[in-house]
Write a structure and sequence with these properties.
Blueprint lengths: L1 H42 L6 H26 L7 H16 L4 H26 L3 H18 L6 E2 L7 H8 L1 E2 L2 E2 H18 L2 H11 L1 H6 L4 H27 L1 E2 L7 H12 L11 H20 L4 H21 L3
Antiparallel strand pairs: 1-4, 2-3
Length: 329
Amino acid sequence: MISQTSTIQFDQKSVHAMNWRLYWERYGVIAAFIIVLILASVMAPNFLSVSNILNVLTTMSFVLFVTYGQTLVILSGGMDLSHGSLVSLTCMASAALVAIGHPWMGLSAGLAVGAFCGLINGAIIGVIRLNPIITTLGMLYMAGGLALYFTDGKSIVGGDPAKVQGFHFLAEGRIFHIPFVIILALVFLLLTHFLLRHTRFGNHIYALGGNEEAAEIAGISYAKMKIIIFTLSGLSCGMAGSLLSARMLSGEPQVGAGTFLLESIGAVVVGGNDIFGGMGNVGRTLIGLMILHFLGNALNLMGISTFTQQIIVGVVVLLFCYLGLVHKK
């Protein structure tokens, strides 16, 4: 009888644990986002104003492009540390052509440079089998150094405003009062979602992240997948860097330093994606990035210092990491 009672109690605990894992996996990040919005609307003045919300979403959109690439990389079982430097390098490549009156060539150059650097990362990781963190750390230094070397650390400024109006519209234009860059970011969100959920390539990404050895046994080419994934990751940085040059009509050699890398990884983690790969989606990444940006915006409106904000955001990221690990046990 005692044994049966203990078994029943154990089973009940197991059921509760399973329910917690299920609820957190399905609704945890959404609930957290709603809580952030409620607290921010109560504590921060003018937080829910239309202008403030659009400003936050506009700023967030530039980072969102980078998170698409980071999501693909992490879901496949890797991590890309080169994002910040690649954004800087591609911004400078784009701005160099914008400055001499060739904005669309500048956009192409930014995308090409980002894709090429990602291709190098993917080839080293996929063919030589070097660790993704080590490889992309090396690219972080190289791309950052190139962004500074070719301009001697100076900004690129110039260009005829009449010739770059269409290019400038990508980052600063509006359609029915909605910033075009937000619309563009959402379109790419849908494309990334389709790629992950409705293509063979997307299935292979999840398979690699779940179990690389099993995926290779099943016939999935590790080298080919890594090359394509990291090329797309670099391309996402090229898009962000080009759009930043369109926004500023200039290039800053350190425009991507720090923020883009940290937020791209933080958004994936806070969004509840498995940091070890194999589980998650780009929608979770979007919500994770929104939590980080709306939280930061609310803290700004409340007059909290930048140093304190960093501490609070760090605690939030650690909390989500902990919850994510707990619900997998």
